Amino acid sequence: MSALSLSRWYRALSSLPTMMANDIAIDLGTANTLIYMKGRGIVLNEPSVVAVEARSRKCIAVGSEAKLMLGRTPADLEAIRPLKDGVIADFQVSEEMLRQFILKVLHHRRFIKPSIIIAVPSGITEVEKRAVKDSAEHAGCRDLHLIAEPVAAAIGVGLPVNAACGNMVVDIGGGTTEIAVIALSGIVTQQSIRVAGDEMDEGVIQYLRKNYNMAIGQQTSELIKMTIGSAYPLKEEKEMEISGRDLVAGIPRTIRVNSAEIREALSEPITAIVEGVRRTLERTPPELSADIVERGIVMTGGGALLKGLDMRLSKETSLTVTVADDPLSCVVLGAGKVLEEPEEYAKVLMDPPRG
Ligand SMILES: Nc1ncnc2c1ncn2[C@@H]1O[C@H](COP(=O)(O)OP(=O)(O)OP(=O)(O)O)[C@@H](O)[C@H]1O
Ligand SMILES: [Mg+2]
Fold it and tell me: How far is the CA of 123 from the centre of ligand 1 (A)?
């Protein structure tokens, strides 16, 4: 073998460990799961839904395919969202979902055990941490690290989390709203409330039931929220046609609702989120409050896309509020940045789960 091809072989061999490593960062969310692969960026973005056979609990479909089945399954199938309020509610199904997603991004090369960073709510308990750890291990991962969601979101947005200045992030997901003030690589003050997008959907369902005697499913209610939902009066109020089941006559019916009505339907969860932000601000040390007055609040997570929520929060706190560019990806992009630059961000990781 010539000297040239030998050196080429040597180079190929020495790059093998990194090629095989496939380290990944996961935002295991109540509504959506995203996976970032080191050196490649976001490689998976799917709803956190699993369809199982009712009797055997065998997994039939995961992700987008399973979400289509939510609320539409025949008796022998069940479409499940295995996470609730940001944490694992159905252990077995979460584990299966995680395994399927990981296998998908590793192209079913089962022999590769990636090391992994998972973003979890900042208020996670030890028991909940263990559930995440066990799920990841059974799904074939080694070397697990956890990162608090708002910290990952802040890094994903590009805030200087390692600096000696206060950064405030409000991440509104499906199950939890994470509010945190971050400085010097750590969380100084935080609130993790279990009110977010799902509670808004529930608000719309209850409103239509009470005011129109109409039953709608969660998917319809989410669509109404995204299309005409708001947290602050709109310049031009909107209207929408909604189909559901009349609770008195028991037959399908179509009605028109307007954005002012849906704002009323959303008022309880929105108020809870605003109160959470106020409480966090009250508990923030004065030096950091001064930084926040200067730098404002950044909103991330899908809930940040609710129309007028930035305006409402800004009015109620007298602070500047901005919505991140791609709010649904901030958490996984931040966790991915920690994978890419482990030395820079070593201090932001949570304690490894015990046991
Ligand atoms: N345009 C929109 N307007 C209002 N809400 C939206 C919009 N787009 C997405 N959402 C909501 O955002 C939520 C999903 O956001 P995200 O993916 O950040 O949550 P998650 O990370 O899965 O949940 P969590 O962090 O609570 O575990 C859903 O409740 C969805 O309805
Ligand atoms: Mg989230």
Answer: 19
